[in-house]
């Protein structure tokens, strides 16, 4: 392949992406970042590149993250064993201090640094900053695991209006001074709704929502809330997908136009979902009869 042909192909790719860039210019995209895309150094770089490119073409991007694997490693260094109940980390007083240190310190600032290296302006926040994520105790048996009671997103909107990418760690607070560990999917649903996001991307380690959890080819590309309810009734959605799909529904009810359960194991998954007609996950909408929009027309 000649250099001239390569340049011609690059120009063609950019031209094909133009309608998608125009559609999302000035719109808010929220990305819940986690899973293998957060652990793999190569995938992490690609996610940061995707986010940087979107910001540079005028998309307003907000990144919300967890950091379970890093928390596990740090707890082990402190000689503490991780305990889970119904998929949630049991969080005593010492553990919440470590969680806050890891999420709002190491993980958050690493992501801000990576985005800065890609040439975009990013600022790290936790849910405590400007009282962003308000919470109370979800269940005394879980300790300092929070249930979100409200969000205050003005600081997030202010930063995006100034051209920054806010990077938010899923930590909450209450008016008694307690700090809570918040499920990042839940935080993303609340915040995406509050900022009026066009899209919420929930990055995961599977292809999307599957009719058969053991068969990646059974991927459901587009589904609405009634369809999800039917899958729940049939027992198709089970295990770890239950809270993620519930967060998808919650985000739609809070005003997010579309939620995508995105396969974070795919290289440049975010760009493939936004700037092409292929799609690499499952798009969730409120009602398929509202003027069907799928990966081919999204």
Structure description:
By secondary structure, the protein is α/β, with parallel strands linked by helices. Helix content is 42%, strand content 21%. It is built from 10 helices and 14 strands. The longest helix has 25 residues, at 93-117. The protein is globular, with a radius of gyration of 19 Å.
Sheet-strand content, in percent, reads 15-25%
Widest β-sheet, arrangement of strands? 5-8-2-1-11-13-14-12
Residue share in helices?
40-55%
Largest sheet: 8 strands, mixed
Order of helices and strands: HEHHEHEEHEEEHEEEHEEHHEHE
Which parts are unreliable, with pLDDT below 50 for 5 consecutive residues or more?
Answer: none
Classification by helices and strands: alpha/beta
What distance separates the N and C termini?
A: 33 Å
Count of helical stretches: 10
Count of individual beta strands = 14
Overall mean confidence score, pLDDT: 90
Question: Radius of gyration in whole Å, from Cα?
Answer: 19 Å
Shape, per Cα inertia axes: globular
Short description:
Helix content is 42%, strand content 21%.
